[in-house]
Each structure stands twice: as structure tokens, then as C-alpha cells.
Amino acid sequence: MWTKMIASIAGLALGACALPMQADESADTTSVHFRSEHGRDVTVAVGCGDRQQTVLGVVESRGLGEFEIPDETIRCVWGLRFWLIPEDHPRGYMTDPIAIRDGDQVDFWIEKYPAQSAWRTR
User: Fold this and answer.
1) Per-residue pLDDT for 3 more than 60?
2) Which of 33, 56, 59, 114 has its CB surrounded by the most CB atoms within 10 Å?
3) Is the model more confident about 20 or about 98?
4) What is the predicted pLDDT for the residue at 101?
5) What is the pLDDT of residue 8?
6) 107, 33 Cβ separation under 8 angstroms
7) Is 85 helix (H, G, I), strand (E, B) or coil?
8) Which DSSP symbol is given to 103?
């Protein structure tokens, strides 16, 4: 009797191991939503601390943009910094470090003067 029960449990356990695991693609990135009040297109880049930044894309003048940041970038110990570089402007604005957790959604408002831009995480 015990032998049959153990064999049944072992069979269930082996059957469960044979099921394919499905990856949750949404857990691999973090969404950052941008709303621009700036009069020109703004290039957005992100970097870990002061290290080299990666360009995410361009938010059009007074437009909306959404970019995905890989979670391995989000796990930056020094905090993420965003660079906002208006079109036809030689220098951009770099934010203070932002602490973001995996799966957070970030809302970012690009103001007319990039130094006055704001963000929130949720």
C-alpha cells in the first residue's frame, strides 16, 4: 500500500517537472512613460550612476513616449540617471540618481526647462 502511494507521488512529481515553464516577459523590463512640455524633441538616455548612458529614444515636442529599460540596468547600485537632451542643444540635463525597483512604472514629465523636470515611481 505504501509502495503504491509513494510511486503515485513520485509519478506526479516527475510529470510536473516535464511541464514547460513559461517566461514572464513583462518581468524582464521596467516601463518609463514620458510626457514632454518642451518646445523641441528631446532625446532621452539612461545610465547607471555616472557610467556611459544608453539612448532610449526621442520624445517628440509636447508629445508622449514610452520606453522599456532592462531590469539588469534597473538594478544599478548607484541609482539611475536620465539624460534629457533637447534637439539643437549642445548640452543636456542629467537627473539626480533615481532608485527604481524591478517592475516599477516610472512617470517622467519633461518641462520647458529640463532642469525643472520631475518623475515618480509606482
Assistant:
1) no
2) 59
3) 98
4) 82
5) 54
6) yes
7) strand
8) T
Residue 114 CA to residue 30 CA, distance in Å, equals 22
Q: How many degrees, rounded to 5, is the angle at CA 95 between CA 89 and CA 98?
A: 150
Q: Which three cell numbers stand for residue 80?
A: 539611475
Q: What is the 3-state secondary structure (H, E, C) of 14-65?
A: HHHHCCCCCCCHHHHEEEEEEEECCCCCEEEEEEECCCCCEEEEEECCCCEE
pLDDT tens, 26-57? 458 888 999 999 999 999 999 988 777 899 99
Distance CA 82, CA 55 (A): 10
Closest CA to 25 of 75, 71, 76, 67: 71
CB 65 within 8 A of CB 33: yes
